[in-house]
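At this stage, I put together one protein's amino acid sequence and its backbone structure tokens, which the following lines show:
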Amino acid sequence: MMYEKRLIEGKFPCGQVGAETQRERGASSALPPLYFLHVWWARRPLTPSRAAVLGSILPADVNPNDFLRNLGIVKKQVVINSRRWTLVGKNLELIRNDGYGEYIPYSEKFDTALAKENERRRAVREALGKLCQADPVYRTSTLIE
């Protein structure tokens, strides 16, 4: 019998699941807290628990977008200078709808958010570069693009 790799071992969308988990935790300030909706002794966040179970069952070649959609996680993305930017948290508040479509008007908030995102991406690229230099196995990894 041959071992079949699972989604949780491959291209698991950690960023999107993590962002949804943060949003879910923020909802706990409402009355009653989200985790009171059903009894759970350890009170684990529901989103990462569902994601871990589903990711452990599905094969690795499942489309991560379909996986997120099945979990009920819908992501908003914009393309800026031919780079995708997934909007999470307060950045979702930047979106406007004029009846024809959604857009983000240029503002100081947008400029600050974009600068923070570019800095985060620079730091991640730098960390990945160091990782690839330290271990040649990562240079050919499909997870590091």
